[in-house]
Amino acid sequence: MSELTRKAEKLDAADELAAKRGEFVLDDVVYLDGNSLGALPVAVPGRVEDVVRRQWGELRIRSWTEGGWWTAPERIGDRIAPLVGAAPGQIVVGDSTSVNVFKAVVGAVRLARPAGPERDEIVVDATTFPTDGYIAESAARMTGCTVRPAEPSSLPDVLGERTAAVLLNHVDYRSGRLHDLPSLTAAVHAAGAVVVWDLCHSAGALPVGLDEHGVDLAVGCTYKYLNGGPGSPAFLYVRADVQDRFDSPLPGWNSHAEPFGMRPSFEPAAGAVRGRVGTPDILSMLALEAALEVWDGVTVDAVRTKSLALTDFFLECVEAYVPEGRVSCVTPLAHGERGSQVALRCPDAGDVMQRLIERGVVGDFRHPDVLRFGFTPLYVGFAEVERAARVLAEVLA
Q1: Largest CA distance in the chain
Q2: Residue 234: pLDDT over 90
Q3: What average pLDDT is seen over the chain?
Q4: Contact 81, 263 (CB under 8 A)
Q5: Is 116 a residue whose pLDDT tops 90?
Q6: CA 53, 56, 59, 63 torsion-angle sign
Q7: What is the pLDDT of residue 117?
Q8: Is the pLDDT assigned to residue 128 strictly greater than 90?
């Protein structure tokens, strides 16, 4: 037994989250792609069967009230709230991440305009996931703005009197770099602009502190670290003190003050409910609600502690096992700058990842040369991390 194998055993024995692994459907595969799709919690299949057979099959229309379908977007939003540092009543669940980004960016511009109609720039993280950029361009056309790409590190230098809204990623999806949400939010506010944070790669992986740091609007998906299932609905955060001014570009009957009044004119509902649009996607939403039960008794701080320990240990094992010069780490080593993934640059990354998957280590490949490994602390253990690094070394040897 190698020294690192023994170390992995000791770390697993001391892991306070180890028992959570039993709440997921897992096999012998080392699953390090939870930053794309989280594993299935064991409670979900039974819950979905109940929703389909009993609530839909027997109660039918009565389930909107008796089954709590109508209030699910806010109820599940309140379940997510503590995981991103938000008080109840500020998060609504529904629609896709892209749709919510559109609502948030247009809404941010509209929030900023009363402070100065000359504000006509939307600043976008230049390293953002492509869809965020596409949405920002569309939002700009709709609001008469122009888009200004900027690296998060240079953000204070590009903000000014023309800045209306700023769209940023909390964690870079390629590199795993964690951006400084508190200081960047403060810089946006100092410029008189409104900030929108994309939390897709941080919600459920690390503390966010939306309320604490005065974030205006935020969007996140639920199928990654929150394990909600493929295509599970996203969430929209609207800070309490801006809710009465939040003007969604997608008003629908579900966000109306009187949804069943069928009024010809729109009057937005009070609170985060005005972030709703149409009929909720109940099957996937209630699957998400069941999945969130794995967070019972878990703090995000504990998850973050284990996440850093897992990524530290993986990097230690890679350094010990992988032939020198074969890979280079793209992810920052400093804890304050690292999300819950490790990205390794490798010239033949696509082929290497395919061979890893064939040998039971599942990560993913990002064009053109990045091996990406996502660590979900609720179910990934240290022995698996050591095995992944060892198999990577064998593939690269």
Answers
A1: 73
A2: yes
A3: 97
A4: no
A5: no
A6: positive
A7: 76
A8: no
Q: Which pTM value belongs to this model?
A: 0.97
Q: pLDDT value at position 114?
A: 85
- Residues belonging to the active site: 129, 198, 223-224, 372
Q: Decide: 343 and 176 in contact? Cβ < 8 Å.
A: yes
Residue 110 pLDDT > 90: yes
In angstroms, the CA 370 to CA 52 distance is 41
What's residue 93's pLDDT?
A: 98
What is the structure's pLDDT at 203? 98
Q: How many residues belong to the chain? A: 397
Q: Which residues pair with 345 in a beta bridge?
A: 328, 370
pLDDT surpasses 80 at 1: no
Residue 214's pLDDT band (cuts 50, 70, 90)? very high
Would you state the structure tokens that stand for residue 310, as one six-digit string? 């897992």
CA distance 25 to 35: 17
Which three-class secondary structure string do you get for the chain?
A: CCHHHHHHHHHHHCCCCHHHHHHEECCCCEECECCCCCCEECHHHHHHHHHHHHHHHHHHHHHHHHCCCCCHHHHHHHHHHHHHCCCCCCEEECCCHHHHHHHHHHHHHHHHHHHCCCCCEEEEECCCCHHHHHHHHHHHHHHCCEEEEECHHHHHHHCCCCEEEEEEECECCCCCEECCHHHHHHHHHHCCCEEEEECCCCCCCCCCCCCCCCCCEEEECCCCCCCCCCCCCCEEEECHHHHHHCCCCCCCHHHECCCCCCCCCCCECCHHHHHCCCCCCHHHHHHHHHHHHHHCCCCHHHHHHHHHHHHHHHHHHHHHHCCCCCCEECCCCCHHHECCEEEEECCCHHHHHHHHHHCCEECEEECCCEEEEECCCCCCCHHHHHHHHHHHHHHHC
